[in-house]
Write a structure and sequence with these properties.
By secondary structure, this protein is mostly beta strands. Helices cover 5% and strands 40% of the residues. Bound molecules: zinc ion (2 copies).
Length: 135
C-alpha cells in the first residue's frame, strides 16, 4: 500500500497514512475554491482509520449544496486546509493534495463540479468531468 504524508505550512500538524487511495478528484466547487483560495482543489479520499494525525486541527462545519454535513479541518496556527469529511461518506477523509509529499501519487482521475468551474481554469481533456459530485 502506498504511504502518503505531509504537514501544514507551520509544521504544527502533520499526518501519515499507509492506505489505498479510494479516489482522487479535482474539485471545482465554490466551497473548495473559497476554502483553499485556489481556483480548484485536488482531493485524495482515504479511509479515516488509516490516517494518523499529529497535532490538533480546528474543525469548521458547514452544509454542502446537496445538504450533507461537511467538515473542513485546518491548522489553527497557519490556516492550512488539511482534511475534510462529508456525512455522505462515513469513514472517509479527504486530504488536500497540495501538501502531500509523495507527489508522484497525485494523479486525479476526474474533475467534479465542472458546473462551477472558473472559465479560464485549464482541464485535462483525458479526464472525465462531472457537473456535480458523482455517487
Ligand atoms: Zn500550521
Ligand atoms: Zn469541492
Amino acid at each position: 500500500m502506498p504511504t502518503i504524508s505531509g504537514k501544514c505550512l507551520c509544521g504544527n500538524i502533520s499526518y501519515r497514512a499507509d492506505t489505498e487511495i479510494k479516489m482522487m478528484a479535482n474539485c471545482h466547487c465554490v466551497d473548495c475554491r473559497t476554502a483553499t483560495g485556489a481556483v480548484f482543489g485536488t482531493l485524495l479520499f482515504i479511509a479515516e482509520d488509516d490516517l494518523e494525525i499529529s497535532g490538533t486541527p480546528r474543525v469548521f462545519k458547514h452544509t454542502s449544496d446537496s445538504g450533507s454535513a461537511m467538515e473542513k479541518h485546518f491548522c489553527p496556527d497557519c490556516g492550512t486546509q488539511l482534511f475534510g469529511k462529508n456525512s455522505n461518506r462515513p469513514g472517509v477523509y479527504s486530504v488536500r493534495a497540495g501538501h502531500v509529499v509523495q507527489t508522484d501519487l497525485i494523479q486525479p482521475g476526474v474533475n467534479v463540479y465542472m458546473s462551477s468551474k472558473i472559465p479560464s481554469t485549464p482541464v485535462d481533456p483525458e479526464l472525465k468531468g462531472f457537473d456535480k459530485m458523482p455517487g
